[in-house]
Amino acid sequence: MKNKLNSLLFAPWLALTLALVPVLRAQGNQPSPPAPVVTDEKVAPPPAAEPPAAPAEEKTAVSEAGKTDGQLRELGADDQKAEAPAPRKKRGKPHWTVGYDSKKHSSNERISFGSDSTLVAGEQAEAVVSIFGSSTSAGEVNDAVVSIMGNSRVTGGTVGDAVVAVLGNVYVNGHVKGEVVAVMGDVELGPEAVVEREVVCIGGQVKRDAKAVVRGNVQNIAIAGKHFDFTGLTTWFTQCLMYARPLAFDGNLLWAWCIALAFLAFYALIALITPSGVNKCVETLEQRPGYSLLAALLTMLLTPVAYILLAITLAIAIGFVLIPLFSLGLFFASLFGKIVMLAWLGRRFTRLLGDGPLAHPVFGVLIGGVIVLGLYTIPIVGFVTYKLLGILGLGVVVYTLILQFKASRPAKPVVVAAAPALSGAVAPVSGIQGEAPPMVSPLVAVAPPVISAATLPRVGFWLRLAASLLDLILIGIVTGMTEGLFRVFNFHPGGAFPFWIAVYCVIMWATKGTTIGGIICGLKVVRLDDRPLDWGVAVVRGLSAFLSLAVAGIGFIWVAFDDEKQSWHDKIAGTTIVKVPKGTALL
């Protein structure tokens, strides 16, 4: 801008210079005027000589040059004043809008999330927008009035573009230069409403005052041939979903409470029909809470994996049958799981009344249902309670089914070890005739215990986990202490931590049959065929452990549900872990 100003100021002086050049040349060729005669009288100035005729272009130049220096200075000042730009006005942040010129209006939007936006009469804004709230305008809006899951109201003034409500109602009693649109809501036009374009209502009803003016078309589109009232649904979005809770105390949410009470009545009916199944699941949760929680987590993790495996089977015809059956089974299991959780929660109170009629699970479901409905109205806690009931309930049902399946299987024959031979004879002792001689305790040679999968108890998940944690801590300490030494050779042992764990375990299994953590916990790795654990089996077991770890660690957790107490890498290597008696040397 500064360069442009300098060029504009320089142009008049350049034109003036070019115009004065021919004038100065003409004056240089003229004879000098005669000297004036000095007398006592006043000296009269000599008559000015007429300049020679100049071409038209030169006359124009002379006319321009005939101006005095003061006139030229005045002209330059006027030109400078004319060319000087106006002072720049401060603007707000740029705002891109549709339907108006942003240079004519200042940037002023009314936008709110989770609350209402209001523009009172006499105020001006470019847009009034509310997400999960209502928008009300009585002033001048340059763009649009929009509400998502809320109501849009124009009680006066002018709206430059459109008035829109999604899952809400629209009320217009002012001048709208664009369209009026309501999606799943009603449109109401007041007596002072003027709509320049169309009025569109999808799913709701259009209510129009006789004095309202609509210069476009009015389209009232029904859903499934009916017009619905979505006020309750909008209220649920704003009062429940925004607060992360399924229920709230509001007059428009009566339909939600009716649905919740209907489900509670259905749950009570199922508990009344199948009390034994509900009681078994509740007992499983009370007696084995840790395994029930583990089963819930595993069910949640394995459900997507099961769907992926079933999707792979879509290549054959059986996949089209298995996926719907699996989905249906999960649905009914989760439904029954919620009944179990309600009965378990209500049982905390009914068991205080003894084993009378109130001990029936149906009363537990009703009492637990009332408690849960109260929790559903608390923000955040409501959705957390809803999700926990579903996840834990499904896990308890699945774990109870696994236990019932294991109980229905025939028991394995118990192998009884032969009694050791007695060293020494029982010497008769003289006594009263006719009486049996007293028995003298013989000296029994105690044989060392046979470490075998058939004679010793197998170890479950939690004891294995404790031993593994001890080994991890040990290897972590060792790698941390030797890290400085390895850095000399530009090697970082921390990055190969799983490798060192595998090497440590393979060496310990092949040489001692256990690890340091296993020695502390009294565990030993044995083969199912009672043959010694050699290097080949140890290496296979170590490599297979990576497979058990790769699938979210499910191969390790499998021990908790397997009858043989084997992990995936145990099954691949043909091994298991047994608990040795106290005092048995493992080194």
How does this structure look, described?
- The protein is of the alpha/beta class and 587 residues long.
- The chain has four domains: 2-30 and 46-83, no CATH class; 104-232, no CATH class; 251-408, no CATH class; 461-579, no CATH class.
- Helices cover 46% and strands 13% of the residues.
- The radius of gyration is 48 Å and the shape is elongated.
Question: What's the topology here?
Answer:
Elements: H1 2-29, H2 56-65, H3 69-83, E1 109-113, E2 117-119, E3 124-125, E4 127-131, E5 135-137, E6 140-141, E7 145-148, E8 152-154, E9 158-159, E10 163-166, E11 170-172, E12 175-176, E13 180-183, E14 187-189, E15 194-195, E16 199-202, E17 206-208, E18 213-214, E19 218-221, H4 231-239, H5 254-273, H6 275-287, H7 289-312, H8 319-350, H9 361-376, H10 381-408, E20 422-423, E21 443-444, H11 461-481, H12 483-488, H13 497-512, H14 516-521, E22 523-527, H15 535-550, H16 554-557, H17 568-573, E23 575-579
Parallel strand pairs: 1-4, 2-5, 3-6, 4-7, 5-8, 6-9, 7-10, 8-11, 9-12, 10-13, 11-14, 12-15, 13-16, 14-17, 15-18, 16-19
Antiparallel strand pairs: 20-21, 22-23
Helix pairs in contact: 1-2, 1-3, 5-8, 5-9, 6-7, 6-8, 6-10, 7-10, 8-9, 8-10, 11-13, 13-15
In short:
With 587 residues, the protein is an alpha/beta fold. The protein has four domains: 2-30 and 46-83, no CATH class; 104-232, no CATH class; 251-408, no CATH class; 461-579, no CATH class. Helix content is 46%, strand content 13%.
